[in-house]
Amino acid sequence: MATRAGRQRDPRDYGYPHDDRAALVERARIVTERLVARHGHARFSDKDPLSMLVDILLSHRTRNEQTYAGYKALLARFGDWAGVRDAPTEEVEAAIAMVNWPELKAPRLQAILRQITAERGELSLDFLCDLSAEEGSAWLGRLAGVGPKTIACVLLFTCRKPILPVDTHVHRVSIRLGLIGAKVTAEAAHTLLGALLPDDPQAIYDYHRALLKHGQNPCVYGVPRCAQCPLQDLCDYYVTRHRPPAPRVIAADDDARSG
Ligand code: SF4
Question: Quick check: 85 and 113 in contact, CB under 8 A?
Fold first, then answer.
């Protein structure tokens, strides 16, 4: 409804698009099923949680190849994560020069490694796998620069905890599909989308990976390539743009004029 101050805030934009939660759960399930048929199941990492945390911290706004090169460079130059922690910051920064914002990531990474050592008495996050997803999230969330996506990546990919990471692709595609409202933030999407998925790490990882792949192609930024998409019948974006126009209602005086 329009007001003098402008359009009223529509709660459906900031939560689920409608109240039929069962229908949204079913849509998420079919989306996952179809995309897994195309891309295969997600495979859990054999990295330990600390190594995954380093990997994800390096990967922010950085391409996979550059992240991989930065991760390898750190281990090649400093031997292990304790070596990275104790090295001069400018050397760490130089080692990861291929990732975006090395000047921010190097000191942040070292601060996190020092904090873990101080709090745990060792440089390891293996204990996270013995905690619940909620407890692990709360522990990681206290580290500076570690947000919901990073937390979920570490806990799902390595500890196999049932918690969904929402990256930019998962966020965009989920909105287009109509699983969450158009103005749901990526942060809020973690909880809303997670509640539509089974409490099963493999199913959650499959959804994450499937939508990430789908967001790279065909559901890209800008204009998605819908002609190549197997989800057209499940997609609100597609339906609203390709729905045939409503038939024109012919009024009585139209008849009179045409008669
Ligand atoms: S139909 Fe188009 S907008 Fe919808 S999921 Fe497929 S590519 Fe994306």
Answer: yes
